[in-house]
Amino acid sequence: MKTKKLKSFRSAPRRAIEPLEISSISMLDNLSKLAKKAELIEASITGFLMIVHRDDLIPKVLRENLTIDSILGTTILIYLPQMNLEISGKIARTKLLGKKGFEIGVDYSSDAPEYWRECLLDLLPSPGEFKD
């Protein structure tokens, strides 16, 4: 009996990082706020993964549902205050984490050259880098 290997759909391997604060998430088309804050937890040269708590979502319709798939494909702008950096990208996937909130995967590869994205990944802190 042959076993099928699961094909990896990632275009670049993710790297765990020291969680970074995202102070706002806005929709780029009309600059309305999507979330008050979030946390960046993983990154690659093509995208990043963040966690948004339900209470931090601004649109009431998103806070009241178990899915936020309605924002898939939305181009967003996030601000990382610790790096004084704004990054735009497209929401690629969402996942409910229960009471913890939602995971949101963002692809930012179309808006930035590859060398810039590689440099950004090198600058992001590794887990435990800021601990005493």
Textual characterization of the structure:
With 132 residues, this protein is mostly beta strands. The protein is 11% helix and 39% strand. The chain has helices spanning 60-63, 114-123, and strands at residues 15-22, 24-27, 33-35, 38-43, 47-52, 75-80, 85-96, 102-107. The protein has an eight-stranded antiparallel beta sheet, with no helix packed on it.
List the helices and strands and how they pair.
Blueprint: E1 15-22, E2 24-27, E3 33-35, E4 38-43, E5 47-52, H1 60-63, E6 75-80, E7 85-96, E8 102-107, H2 114-123
Antiparallel strand pairs: 1-4, 2-3, 2-6, 4-5, 5-8, 6-7, 7-8
- The total count of strands amounts to 8
Poorly predicted ranges (pLDDT <50, ≥5 residues)? Answer: 1-8
Q: Name the average pLDDT.
A: 88
Shape: globular
Tell me about the biggest sheet?
8 strands, antiparallel
The gyration radius over C-alpha positions equals: 15 Å
Note the gap between the termini.
53 Å
Residue share in helix: 10-25%
Structural class: mainly beta
Strand percentage lies at 35-45%
- Strand order in space, largest sheet: 1-4-5-8-7-6-2-3
So how many helices?
Answer: 2
